[in-house]
Write a structure and sequence with these properties.
Elements: H1 2-13, H2 17-20, H3 22-37, H4 40-56, E1 73-75, E2 80-87, E3 95-101, E4 108-110, E5 115-123, H5 135-138, E6 141-147, E7 153-160, E8 167-169, E9 176-177, E10 182-186, E11 190-196, E12 200-202, E13 209-210, E14 216-220
Antiparallel strand pairs: 1-14, 2-3, 2-13, 3-11, 4-10, 5-6, 5-9, 6-7, 7-11, 8-10, 12-14
Helix pairs in contact: 3-4
Length: 222
Amino acid sequence: MMCTLSFIKNYITNNLLWVEGKSLLVIIVGLGLLGYFIVSLFLYAALFLFLFCFYFFRNPKRTCKELLTDSSLLVCPADGRVVAIEQIDDSVYSQKIALFLSPLDVHVTRAPVTGKIIDVVYHEGEFAMAFLPKSSDLNERNDIVIQMHNGTLFKVRQIAGTIARVIVCWVKKDDQVIAGSCYGMIKFGSRVELFVPRSVTITIKVGQKVYGGQTVLGKVQS
């Protein structure tokens, strides 16, 4: 019973709707007032919208047990499904892991490794379907670069989609992040990409369902 109450309390207090969904709350309250004073149908619409947004903005606590004994592991930066693992031609990164987030997935983005933020770059762009490969370069996006203590670099890219048109990033240059910690979110369906160096052995497969801060994506070889 106590565990259930604790879960409900954490689900409510950790929910990002109160912070990142204030404009939606205003709309919900407006619909509720219209429903109460004018047309009851608006009241049902307000209830549905609130329940959907409350579910969408959830921010569950995640832990990666394997990471407790092996700090060289790479944890997933977001919930979703692996849509691509590609070799890329770059002077720093050799592989790219692409994740597609449906509107029903948790949209919090997390640090894949522990380290220092050495760069944060926002790019304006289009809002093509997030599951399309071209969205990586054409869509609105935000890149953060994390440097591990040994100098290894990783880049995480938040990509807005047709529905997701708001990218939120809570970190800035020179901030320290811990593997699995939250650093931002993308609202309503999107794509997250992780760029890794040649020293990383990837252990996941295309089509696999993954969970941010919990699923191990690979291992950094020494």
